[in-house]
Structure formats: C-alpha cells, structure tokens
Fold this protein.
Amino acid sequence: MRLQDRVAIVTGAASGIGRASAQLFAEEGARVLAVDLPGKKLAQVHENHSTITCLEKSVGDADAAQMIVDEAIKHFGQLDIVMNNAGVAANALVEEMSQEVWDRTMNVNLTAQFRLCQRAIAHLKKSKAGRIINVASVMAEGTDYGLAAYCASKAGVAGLTRTLALELGKFGITANYLEPGAIRTGMTSGLWDARPDVADIWAKKSALRRLGQPIDLARGALFLASDDGGFVTGHGLVVDGGLMLRV
Ligand SMILES: NC(=O)c1ccc[n+]([C@@H]2O[C@H](COP(=O)([O-])OP(=O)(O)OC[C@H]3O[C@@H](n4cnc5c(N)ncnc54)[C@H](O)[C@@H]3O)[C@@H](O)[C@H]2O)c1
C-alpha cells in the first residue's frame, strides 16, 4: 500500500485520467476527495471504493479552492496530495477565438490549479510527504492549429508547477506535472469514435504504436504521489508512449 494514511484531492475525477487516479490512489490506501462538475456521475467513482468521498463543484468557481480544501479537512482531518487534473479542451484559430473561450480555458486549466495549490499549501506543510501533481499536456511543449488557449494554459501549468517546487521544497513538499500524450478519455473518445482514422494516426505516431489509457497516467501520478517519487520535484513527467520523440 503505497499511499497508506495519505489524504488526496483529485479534481476532474468523474472521468478519464482523474477517475483512474482517484481509484488507484484509493486502492493504494489513500482516502480521496473526488471533485467534478455537478451531474458528472461522480458516484460511480465511489463504487467499490469506500474511501473515496465525492464533491460536486466546478473548479472554475472563485470559491471552489477554499471549499474543496475545507471539505477534505472536514472529512479526513489532513491533506497530503493535491492532484489538479480537471481540464477542458478548446479548438479555435487565434483570429477567430472569442474572449470567452480564451478566458474559460485559462480559468479551468490554469487559474483553478493556482488557486487550489495556494489554498492547500498551509495543510501540505503539515504533511510528512506533501505532494502537488498538476496535469499539463505534451501540448505544454508543442502545439497544433487551433490550440493556442489550450497550449498557453498547459505551458502555464508547467511554469506554475516548477515555481511551486522551488518555493515549497524547503517544506518537504514536491510539485510535479504530468504531460499526457494521446489518451483515450472523455475528452478524446467522442472525436476518435466518430473518426477512427484520426485515432489510428495518433496511435501510429507514438513509438509504442498505441493510444494511452487513463491507467497509464494514473500509474505516473501514483509514482509522483508515493515515496517512490520523494526526490523528484519540478519535473514534467511525459507519459505519451513516445508520441513526441520525432520532430
Ligand atoms: N486525453 C488526452 O489525450 C489528454 C492529453 C493531454 C492532457 N490531458 C489532460 O488530462 C486532464 C484530464 O482529462 P481527461 O483526458 O481525463 O478528460 P476527461 O474529459 O475524461 O476528464 C476531465 C474531467 O474534468 C472535469 N471538468 C472539466 N471542467 C471542470 C470544472 N470546471 N470543474 C470540475 N471538473 C471539471 C470533466 O467533467 C471531466 O470529468 C485534463 O487536464 C486534460 O487537459 C488529456
């Protein structure tokens, strides 16, 4: 049990990477507060995982960070791991992108991560193994047409997390970010089910010749959350099956 006696917050936990991570953390002994939007089938995350507690709340709300941290402390009395995973995709050329799309993407993907880290710090300082795991993307380093807001938000996550690592290291807190490649989740399966040829292109681009599954990222998150990753901080862990190897 690699997370025995630890308490974790996982956002965006109703689906995909967040769901797999919340459940793997629970299977490794953690008590988990799983956060997602209202009506997003969070209860299913809890099934067969009695140490997972659910909270329906948009991380984009200004009061969300304080509410989430308060809920974790109320239920579990401590906080050791924060996994900022909730995210949204946006696709629009810069010339045509509305301010609303830009603002929503930055708010959910970046500002919400900043706020939750900020509110969690005082509690993480009390932990023997404080951990921040922010979910970025390989698009923090690369890009594609229409991805300006998404890429900017994910590059921001990388910068935020490296700075957190520097500022919080003296308290024994690590801060790292994950860079998923092409992963079959709620975010991608709509397109890939409708266009299997597109999914096939992504799979063939990766060295391992397959799409990623949520559990591939959950295992990376578990490494960073556990004692195994105790001397790793300020690091972007690429979990992409070798997607980004070729220029
Ligand atoms: N799937 C991929 O290929 C891929 C690649 C790189 C990065 N990522 C990142 O991985 C993370 C998880 O995404 P996923 O692929 O598992 O997608 P997903 O759609 O399966 O899961 C994302 C979850 O976040 C939740 N969410 C969205 N907005 C929210 C909000 N305002 N408040 C609370 N919850 C909210 C959604 O309801 C959903 O349950 C995201 O940050 C995403 O950008 C995914």
Remarks:
- Residues 11-12, 14-18, 36-37, 40, 58-60, 85-88, 108, 135, 137, 180, 182-183, 185-188 surround nicotinamide-adenine-dinucleotide (CB under 6 Å).
- The chain has a mean pLDDT of 97.
